[in-house]
Amino acid sequence: MNFDAYARMGVDLVNARLDDLDDLRALFPDDSAWMREEASDRDVAIFRRAQKRLRDVFDYGTSGRDAQAVTELNALLEAYPVQPRISGHDSSDWHMHVTSRGASVSAEYLAGAVWGLSVWLCEYGSARFGVCADERCGNVYLDTSSNCCRRFCSERCATRSHVAAHRARKRAAVGEQVSATATADALTPVT
User: Fold this and answer.
1) Which CATH entry fits the domain spanning 3-153: 3.90.1640.10, 3.40.50.1980, 1.10.3300.10, 1.10.10.10?
2) Element holding 160 (H helix, E strand)
3) What values do phi and psi take at 115, rounded to 5?
4) What is the mean pLDDT of residues 124-138?
5) How far is the C-alpha of 106 from the C-alpha of 45, rounded, in Å?
6) 69 phi, psi to nearest 5 deg
7) Which PANTHER family match (predicted)?
């Protein structure tokens, strides 16, 4: 089983827009056409609740509250239990699924996402769960850096944040220069 792929499903869910059924269908990977076809409005509500709870897991991990992250993941594992089964269409493509045959869209997707994030936490620790440092973003990510130093969900957010900080420093420097010139002008006696 590719646990990283399952963990990334959790990241994708937390970062997804879930306003309606079309948004939910857009969340599913290309190889999950059956999920797009069988998804219902009921699934949208279930996914929204799970999305909020998984967001909490990332917030707990990012702020060093490991025990709360584990408690929430354990509760989610109970709500969306893993029931592994072997599946395939012929003897050359056997692979594992995380739920029993006939599981609902939400049960299948959420069992995989929660299982993947749980394995990720056990393997790497909750400090590897990140929330983007760009305050305009808020997306979550899994920190795969070698020294656990990632701060942004993407290069785009990192660049945008660094450019904004650079511009703010420039404005502050210009403002200090203008202020210093005005102060000097005010202190210079008029002759």
Assistant:
1) 1.10.3300.10
2) helix 155-187
3) -60, -45
4) 92
5) 10
6) -60, -45
7) BLL6575 PROTEIN
